Amino acid sequence: MGLVERYLNAVAAQLPKEARDDIVAELRDEIMGRIEALEARLGRPATEAEVEALLREVGHPLTVAARYRSGPQALIGPELYPWWWFAVKVALMVLVCVTVLGAVARVAAGDMMVGQALGQAIGGFISGAATLIGVITVVGFVFERQARKPKFISEWRVKDLGLFEIANLDAETWGERLAKSDFGRDFGSDCGGDGPKARAGRQVRDRAKMSPVAGAAASAIGWTVLLLWWTGLTPLTTVRPDELAGVIDGVDYGTLLAQVVRAAYWPVIVFAAARIVFDVTRAVLGAPVRFTALGDLAFGAASAWASWWLFFWSPFSPLIRVATPAEFWQRVADLFSHGGFPVATILMIGVVWAFVAEVFRMIRALARLAVGREC
Predict the structure, then answer these.
(1) How far is CA 229 from CA 90, 103, 216, in A?
(2) Quick check: is 170 in a domain?
(3) Quick one: 126 and 228 in the same domain?
(4) Residue 232 belongs to a domain
(5) Which pairing describes strands 251-252 and 247-248: parallel, antiparallel, or unpaired?
(6) Same domain, yes or no, for 100 and 145?
(7) Which tens digits make up the pLDDT trace of 226-281?
(8) What span, in angstroms and rounded, lies between the C-alpha atoms of 349 and 354?
(9) pLDDT in tens, 276-302
């Protein structure tokens, strides 16, 4: 087999089957024409080395075949690359926080020495970073090959842009921002003289609040990190969910928490995965109000049911369940009157608070679903 045929076979292997013969025939004619021109210029047949040099000028088979393929020619194109890089930086920032907190928790609990915790934290960070970057790259790869890019790329708003400032990893820049920030205008008083007065609380909240699209993106990132930690798919931290408690006041909360984790393992995975899909979808769609409200209603109901289960049927139930509202308020009063921090009472308050919060969340979602706007 001659060099030209071997070259053409290598190109053909990279081409779509339906257009392969036509492209190879066209390329063969081009190469043979260039060889004939070379031989006419030399006045003799081209040597094998000269033919190979000519084929190098034509290009590597992978590069040549790519010219004839339709669709994206990059894993992540130039339009999506800045978004990919931003997502990577934010994910790594979250990973650093989770890793440091996990290492501190293990040292504080006396499970390991500082050096050992540091070594495990570094190893966990490297592994976790590789996984997160891989996941983000796969998402970017899928988006790159969509006929229509997500709406958040073209339909952005200026008030969303504050979210992107968190990716600035320069500590000096953050220090300057804090020093020059308008915290004084927002939260301070006019005790310094002629400075502007503090804003009203609602103004401050509205100014600090993320846009719906930015909030959806941030929520998706947060739930992804939580899911990776919960499932142990990547060692974001050496602390597992069932290792966050021990024996307190004679009660083995570690064993109880391990039982809760086993019972809730798959429900939490389903919930987190559904939440990620929901948040990504509403970010792509521009966070439509009714779609968001419908999701908030569904996830609020699921969260309320989880709180109900924790209160009445979970392994923690014998410690936190009360029969009447009067008994509930009596335990709350005892918490403040007797001092200390009884874990069972704090858990009871937390579960009840979570249930009430989800009920109000569902009520607000129903209102938004009805009127079709934020309220």
Answers:
(1) 17, 14, 20
(2) no
(3) yes
(4) yes
(5) antiparallel
(6) yes
(7) 887 788 766 555 445 555 555 666 777 778 888 888 899 999 999 999 999 998 88
(8) 8
(9) 999 888 877 777 889 999 999 999 999
